[in-house]
TrEMBL record:
The keyword Lipid metabolism does not apply. Its main location: membrane. It comes from Paenibacillus agricola. Pfam families: MFS_1 (PF07690). This is Bcr/CflA family efflux transporter.
């Protein structure tokens, strides 16, 4: 299997990257439609943001369950079932009659989409280790990080010709495509002899051992709170860009999507330089950049600075996420080959759980202030740095 993966490395990365991108598409594609959804359902901005919270909760809890199941039953079968559920939930969202049911369906949609994220990462750990794991994961990030660039653009393109309903129909088509790819293109990477027993106590012991691993826990918490800041950005910018700065849905999509380029730059720097600079060093550099950009976002929000200053500060912040995501994944997963699905699940649960709590706070002061966004991004950046310094970094090694 390894030789086959090496011969088809790019094609394999494209396939896994598509599954990994399902989460960002589920989150980002409907963002330009927030004002329209608010008007159609006759509800408030906070209620629409709650649909994002529900999706994030589904993505987080789903990873915990789907990752553990993939260690027991293999990678293909849970992934195929999840893609069928994603297809059904997407179509159901399109015909939801009220905001309450829409929120519930977004939870189901996120839960199903989680399988694409967590199982694709577990497959990478099945196939690679060491520096090769870092390099391949950076290639996976290159592909999957195109999703934040493409998803809002695709969403704004769809609503040029139809309503927000068309966005969820398009997501259903994507779910159908991924179901077909799972059946006909994806090989099983976890042999039966390497699967863990179908034992709830053993699964709980696996999670307990992960939580006792300082390096794993430190990386998971540091990256978790960083991504929680990203979710605050995702939840807040549709209203900040459009309501405060007067951007059109199409301009919002371009500004929001441009940060996909920043993610790509950050992750590729780590992937290409991993043979020269350690993951620990990259992790610390990325966190320091996050703190600096967090200060800039906070100052722009407090002073109601120009749009370009906010966009530039967020671009830098998102780039730091690209660096820390790639580095933290390798640091956290390097000693977890025996329970890669559970480890990947826990890595996924923490940011989505924190993000689901934090993202609604962006709108706590209303639709016409960016101050909560600045406070959240600065706070999460500082907290992530403290988690890394307290649990992961080895002081005697300096930056290494």
């Amino acid at each position: 299997m390894d030789k086959n993966l090496n011969r088809n490395r790019l094609r394999f990365a494209l396939l896994l990257g598509t599954f990994s991108a399902l989460g960002p598409f589920t989150i980002d594609m409907y963002l330009p439609s927030f004002p329209a959804i608010t008007a159609d359902f006759g509800t408030t901005a906070s209620m629409v943001q709650l649909s994002l919270t529900a999706c994030l909760l589904g993505l987080g809890l789903g990873q915990l369950i789907m990752g553990a199941l993939s260690d027991v039953y293999g990678r293909r079968r849970p992934l195929m079932i999840a893609m069928l559920f994603f297809l059904g939930a997407s179509i159901a969202c399109a015909i939801a009659p009220n905001i309450g049911l829409f929120i519930a369906l977004r939870f189901i949609q996120g839960f199903a989409a989680s399988a694409g994220i967590v199982i694709s990462r577990a497959i990478v750990r099945d196939a690679y280790s060491g520096p090769e794991l870092t390099r391949f994961f950076s290639l996976l990030m290159l592909i999957s990080n195109m999703a934040p660039l493409l998803a809002p653009l695709a969403g704004s393109g769809v609503i040029l010709f139809t309503t927000w309903v068309g966005v969820f129909v398009a997501l259903g088509v994507l779910g159908l495509f991924l179901t077909i790819m799972t059946v006909f293109r994806l090989e099983e990477t976890l042999p039966v002899e390497k699967r863990v027993p179908n034992n709830l106590k053993q699964m709980l012991r696996n999670f307990q051992s992960l939580l006792k691993d300082r390096q794993f826990l430190g990386c998971a918490l540091a990256q978790g709170v960083m991504i929680a800041g990203i979710f605050a950005y995702v939840s807040g910018t549709p209203f900040i860009y459009q309501n405060i700065y007067g951007a059109s849905p199409q301009l919002f999509a371009i500004l929001f999507g441009s940060n996909g380029i920043s993610l790509i730059i950050g992750s590729q720097i780590v992937g290409r330089m991993s043979h020269r600079i350690s993951e620990r060093r990259f992790m610390l550099i990325g966190l320091l950049i996050a703190v600096a950009s967090g200060i800039a976002v906070f100052m722009v929000a407090m002073l109601h600075g120009p749009l370009y200053a906010l966009v530039a500060s967020l671009f830098l912040f998102v780039g730091s996420i690209g660096m820390t995501s790639t580095a933290s994944f390798s640091l956290a997963m390097e000693s977890q080959s025996h329970i890669a699905g559970s480890a990947s699940a826990l890595l996924g649960l923490i940011p989505f759980l924190l993000g689901s709590i934090i993202s609604p706070l962006v709108g706590i002061a209303g639709e016409y202030t960016a101050v909560p966004l600045g406070v959240i991004i600065l706070s999460t950046s500082v907290l992530a740095l403290l988690f890394y310094l307290g649990l992961v970094r080895k002081p005697m090694n300096g930056l290494a």
